[in-house]
Structure to design on (98 residues):
């Protein structure tokens, strides 16, 4: 399962503490500036890709945080951007070691 969350830059300290928790260290979400991901938002996008039960646990842990789940067109656009970034990285590794 894959999800993208958004939070404002002003909430970075709170979210950095959250990401220092053992669960999120193991989960390893990808964090990028929203502008880089092609969204017209000032803030940070957090991409989570994991087994369904881990994603559900992440949703519970993020429920009381400043991070908000991106849905609809924004969520789809962000997911595509993260997938494209991942595909490009895998393609680069394949070119290096292929």
């Amino acid at each position: 399962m894959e999800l993208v969350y958004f939070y404002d830059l002003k909430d970075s300290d709170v979210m950095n503490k959250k990401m220092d928790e053992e669960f999120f260290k193991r989960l390893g979400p990808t964090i990028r500036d929203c502008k880089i991901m092609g969204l017209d938002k000032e803030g940070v996008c957090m991409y989570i890709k994991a087994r369904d039960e881990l994603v559900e646990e992440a949703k519970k842990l993020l429920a009381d945080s400043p991070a908000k789940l991106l849905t609809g067109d924004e969520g789809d656009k962000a997911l595509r951007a993260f997938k494209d970034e991942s595909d490009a990285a895998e393609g680069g590794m394949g070119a290096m070691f292929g």
Observations:
- Helices lie at 12-19, 22-27, 52-62, 72-97.
- The chain has one domain: 2-83.
- The chain is about 50% helix and 20% strand.
- The mean pLDDT is 89.
